[in-house]
Structure formats: structure tokens, C-alpha cells
Write a structure and sequence with these properties.
The structure holds 2 protein chains of 2 kinds. By secondary structure, chain A is mostly helical. Chain A contains 12 helices and no strands. Helices cover about 45% and strands about 10% of the residues of chain B. Chain B is built from 12 helices and 8 strands. In chain B, helix 8 links the parallel strand 5 and strand 6 (about 185). Chain B starts with a strand and ends in a 13-residue tail after the last helix. The model of chain B has no long low-confidence stretch (mean pLDDT about 95). The chains are: A mainly alpha, B alpha/beta. At the A-B interface, helix 7, helix 8, helix 9, helix 10 and helix 11 of A face helix 2, helix 3, helix 5 and helix 9 of B.
């Protein structure tokens, strides 16, 4: 089955890894095929060292349709979207935008690999808070994250210090028109 | 001296209270009127766009709609909020299809003449007035005139085109402003180096390594303090450094230059009291 844009609609049949990669690249609207692996993005990336893979190599995985490797790479969830890759790139490719698309698709398709799953959890809890309150409540966000990721004791001292400086209010600040916020979320996923 | 729709962002009422207080105090002194956007929502930060472009866009578009209903330019103190709001503003301007959908959904008419500014830009626009107001005040000898490393982080100047007022690799607005007020901003190469941002809770190790490098670079450049313009940069720089190097919000330094009496209360809110960490003057 073809959509109007000529892209194969993958929901209709068994997913093909190359289709997934092509769709992610296309939806990112980044000129990924221009990449000639000069590695200027690699030099600027703040998380490449921790991830053990550079942005240009991640693009290469997508090019080759190596979906499992891309989904399992730590960079997928370690990328903080700082944009350094994009401004350094002589071909104007923002790899962080491509990574966003791979994340969104991997969740949509439930093709989720286990690398750095706690950061994925962080993003999902963050969005859940916005859906619930309209704003982010740092205390409950941090507590939920620490509980669910079983990092019960990390940052306890920091949290305590912030709490006593009244930097972590007990109750969330809420948006009054929460129905409007829920609608944004519901329509957002349809569009 | 101008009126703006103030979009504080979530951190401002919690971890960045001193940023909010110093911003409001400096603006009040200069006669800049801040109207907090009624019922504003979170911009989605780096999480919304990581999972859904549409939710990211709609969240910020709603805030822009609120500012439009007031007929005011928006001012945003946080780097991530500024980035997401600016992204939505540019999409509303440039993409007629999305504009039509969002306008109908959120009930406002987009106007390209109503701008979105980072707080730095607004303060720079009022620099002449700021200088004039500062000239009449008594110098506060602890902080004034210090050698500082101005730290912008990533999202005030990136991606390309998001900020028409600053160079994306070597922004200078904050330094120009602080120099005019008697501080000594230094040249250094880590002004736009990422602090690790939202990885802080999950991968504190990565953030710590980033932050230690930034602090070391500031020290090496001869700075006595780092100056930030973002709640998350500030929180990461203070909470993840292995040192006790002073980190200020730029609005606090403006407050010192203006001789505001409440600065002492701001210092106490910091995780590392920045004034105590300043070296003794020779």
C-alpha cells in the first residue's frame, strides 16, 4: 500500500528495516545523502564519547538499513539535541533531527531496543507530567524516575539540598485549562 | 520602557527561583513591565521533540497564542524554552499548512510582528538605560568588576537560524553587556559547549564529565566565575561539578551593577554560594 507521498505504508505489512530507515530520514527532512563522513559532527558531539558511536556513523547505519544496530546504539537515547552536529556540518545535516525521528518511529512501531532505556523513560515520564499538569513537577518526576529505573539512592543528597532551599515544591503548579493540554496531546498523535 | 509577555518556564518556580527573582527585580528597576502569560504550559523541553514533533509544536504554539491574545512580544529566560518557542514561532511563520491547523485548534491569529526574545536580547536592547541606571548606584564591592566566563550553552544559538541576534559559534551579547557594566568578560572556547542537559538525572556521569571540562576551561581562561542564562545549564554547572566554582545568572550580575539591595537573598538560594567562592581581591 502506498501513501500519497509515495512512501510505502509500513503498518500494512511486516516492517522492513531499510523502509524504516528511509522513512525516518525522509520525515526528518534532512539532506542525509549529502553526508561524506568528514566527521566534523563527531568532533562537536558532547555525547559521542559516552555513546561509543559518532553522529556520522549513526547516519551510516541508517543508510545501510542496519536498523537493529541503530536502535541498539546508545547514541539514539543519549543524544541531547544540542545541535552541535548541525551547525558544524558543511552539508547542513542536523543529525539530532534524524535521531528524533528514529526515536518516534521506534516507539510507534514498538521496536524498542534496550540501550539507555532509562533516558527513554525520562522523556516519557516528562511528557506524562505535561499531559497531567500542563507543566513539569520536578520532584515527582525525579522520584518516579529514580523508582522506576531502580536508582533509589543516586542524587538523594542533591534532592535534599534542593528541597531545603525550597527549590523542589511538594505540589505541582498546574495549568487551569488542562483539557486544552490533553487535546494537544490527542490531536498531536493523530496528525 | 517596554512591556513584554513573560514566559517563565517550569524551572523558574522551582530550581531557578533566584533567576526569576533577579529577572523581575532588574526589570522593575529599569521600568520594563513583565506580564506573566496567563495559564502558560510547559514548552516540552527536549523530551517532547524527542518523542513527537506534533506535540512539541502544539505545546509552544499554545503559549505563543496566549502572548498574541495579549498583543505582546514574548520574553523567555530559559534556553530550552526559548529554543522550542522560537522553533514553533518560525514554523507558524513559514509553514502555512501547520499555521492554519494550529490557529484553528488554539484560536488565535498569528502575527509575525509579535516577536519572541530570549531575556538576554531584551536586556541588551535596554543596555543604554541599564548603564545609566547603574552609573548612579554605589558599587557593590564583592562581585562587581569580576573576571567572568560567559556561558550560553547550546540552545540559545542553535540550530542555525534559530537566533537572529547572535553568532551560533561565538555569541558575544552577554559579554558586551557585562563589559559595559564594568565586568571583565574573557575570551574562552567553551561558551557554547553542551553541559549534558537533560541527561543529568539518568547519566549524571556524562554530565559531570562535561561540566568539569567547562569549569576547568573557565578557570584556565582566568575567570573568577561562570555566568549563565539558562536554569538547566545553571543547575548542571552547580550540581555536577567536582569543584566549588562560582556560577551566576547574568541577571544577578545586572542586579549587582544596579546596586539592588536583595542580592544577598539570591546567593543563599544557590546550591553553591557563588560569592563565597570568589577569590579575595588583591
Amino acid at each position: 500500500m502506498k501513501t500519497t507521498s509515495g512512501i510505502t505504508d509500513l503498518s500494512q505489512r511486516r516492517p522492513d528495516p531499510l523502509d524504516f530507515c528511509t522513512l525516518a530520514i525522509q520525515q526528518s527532512r534532512q539532506p542525509v545523502s549529502r553526508c561524506y563522513h568528514c566527521q566534523r559532527c563527531a568532533g562537536g558531539c558532547p555525547v559521542a564519547e559516552a555513546a561509543g558511536i559518532t553522529p556520522e556513523r549513526f547516519l551510516r547505519l541508517l543508510h545501510l538499513g542496519l536498523l537493529d544496530e541503530a536502535l541498539e546504539s546508545s547514541l539514539l537515547w543519549l543524544c541531547v539535541g544540542c545541535g552541535a552536529c548541525g551547525i558544524r556540518c558543511p552539508n547542513d545535516i542536523s543529525t539530532d533531527r534524524v535521531i528524533d525521528e528514529v526515536r518516534a518511529l521506534s516507539i510507534e512501531r514498538k521496536q524498542i531496543a534496550s540501550a539507555v532505556k532509562d533516558q527513554r523513560l525520562f522523556h516519557r515520564l516528562f511528557l506524562r507530567q505535561i499531559r497531567l499538569f500542563g507543566r513539569v513537577h520536578e520532584l515527582s518526576l525525579a522520584m518516579a524516575l529514580k523508582l522506576l529505573s531502580k536508582n533509589w539512592f543516586s542524587d538523594l543528597l542533591l534532592g535534599q539540598k534542593m528541597f531545603f532551599k525550597r527549590k523542589l515544591p511538594l505540589l505541582p503548579h498546574r495549568v487551569k485549562d488542562r483539557r486544552a493540554i490533553r487535546e494537544l496531546f490527542d490531536k498531536g498523535s493523530d496528525r | 520602557m517596554g512591556q513584554y509577555g513573560y514566559y517563565p518556564g517550569c524551572s523558574i518556580s522551582s530550581s531557578a527561583r533566584e533567576y526569576d527573582r533577579s529577572t523581575r527585580a532588574v526589570c522593575a528597576t529599569l521600568g520594563i513591565h513583565l506580564t506573566e502569560l496567563p495559564d502558560w504550559n510547559c514548552c516540552g523541553a527536549s523530551s517532547a521533540h524527542s518523542l513527537s514533533k506534533d506535540i512539541d509544536l502544539a505545546l509552544s504554539a499554545r503559549n505563543i497564542g496566549i502572548a498574541h491574545r495579549l498583543g505582546l512580544d514574548m520574553v523567555v529566560p530559559c534556553a530550552a524554552c526559548y529554543n522550542r518557542t522560537m522553533h514553533a514561532w518560525q514554523t507558524l511563520r513559514d509553514d502555512p499548512e501547520k499555521r492554519a491547523v494550529l490557529q484553528a485548534q488554539l484560536g488565535f491569529d498569528f502575527r509575525a510582528d509579535l516577536q519572541v526574545y530570549h531575556l538576554l536580547q531584551v536586556m541588551e536592547q535596554h543596555l543604554a538605560h541599564l548603564k545609566e541606571a547603574a552609573a548612579h548606584r554605589l558599587p557593590e564591592d564583592g562581585v562587581r568588576g569580576r573576571r567572568v566566563a560567559c556561558y550560553y550553552g547550546c540552545l540559545i544559538t542553535r540550530p542555525r537560524g534559530i537566533n537572529p541576534h547572535e553568532d551560533m559559534e561565538y555569541p558575544e551579547g552577554m559579554g558586551r553587556m557585562l563589559a559595559e557594566l564594568g565586568y571583565q568578560p574573557l575570551r574562552w572556547s567553551f561558551a557554547t559547549e553542551c553541559c549534558g542537559a537533560a541527561l543529568s538525572l539518568v547519566r549524571g556521569d556524562v554530565v559531570r564529565e562535561r561540566v568539569d571540562r567547562i569549569i576547568a576551561a573557565a578557570r584556565e581562561a582566568g575567570a573568577e566565575a561562570v555566568v549563565t542564562a539558562c536554569p538547566l545549564c545553571q543547575l548542571n554547572l552547580e550540581s555536577r561539578q567536582s569543584d566549588r566554582f562560582p556560577v551566576f545568572y547574568f541577571t544577578e550580575l545586572l542586579g549587582v551593577a544596579l546596586g539592588l539591595p536583595e542580592t544577598e537573598k539570591w546567593w543563599r538560594l544557590h546550591l553553591i554560594n557563588p560569592v563565597k567562592g570568589l577569590p579575595q581581591r588583591a
